[in-house]
């Protein structure tokens, strides 16, 4: 977490690991009203039959890589490329169906 | 502004104008505790002798393009490239010294 004493810089596309056995969550900022995270995936998907069903709204932005998400009740998958953002209202059930397994996918997520 | 009734997608690197006479601010999300904006620059810089001095903390992420910022009291400029984030605490005086004038620079800014 970044201290608030002075201006500080962080490169979100650097220090990407070669191997990533588990999806990795890193908190960038946290206040009582929101949490900003960097998430790294490499071939990770939500386990079969599971859905995210969250108490808070989530806004995600894909920074690098690629992802296919499924939103409950929608026929077609949502395909995210770098620069694509998606607002998932609280309790909008969704799952990550696919991320590429040959490179790191970098997400920014704002939970609020 | 995005409605919260259902999941919605927005591409932050699309619909970039060819010409940009003024720096452009677009609110992506706003709550009582934060405001998330997309900012577009093309050759824009803070006018000579002026500084930003803000009541709230600002976290910025450069998504495309390039920028050089000056932070009061620091000798060297801060150079931002895509993926670079910078936390500017409230009242940390800063200015944008330069953005390229041959392409659009896209920023994400979270004021909180």
Automatic annotation (TrEMBL), chains A, B:
Name recorded for this polypeptide: Cupin 2 conserved barrel domain protein
Gene3D superfamilies noted in UniProt: Jelly Rolls
Annotated Pfam families: Cupin_2
Matching InterPro entries: Cupin_2, RmlC-like_jellyroll, RmlC_Cupin_sf
Stored CDD domains: cupin_reut_a1446
Domain Cupin type-2: start-end pairs: 51-109
């Amino acid at each position: 977490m970044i201290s608030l004493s002075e201006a500080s810089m962080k490169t979100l596309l650097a220090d990407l690991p070669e191997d990533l056995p588990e999806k990795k969550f890193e908190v960038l900022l946290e206040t009582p009203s929101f949490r900003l995270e960097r998430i790294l995936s490499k071939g990770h998907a939500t386990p079969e039959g599971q859905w995210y069903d969250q108490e808070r709204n989530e806004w995600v932005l894909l920074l690098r890589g690629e992802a296919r998400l499924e939103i409950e009740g929608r026929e077609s998958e949502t395909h995210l490329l770098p620069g694509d953002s998606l607002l998932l209202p609280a309790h909008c059930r969704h799952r990550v169906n696919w991320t590429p397994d040959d490179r790191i996918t970098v997400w920014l997520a704002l939970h609020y």
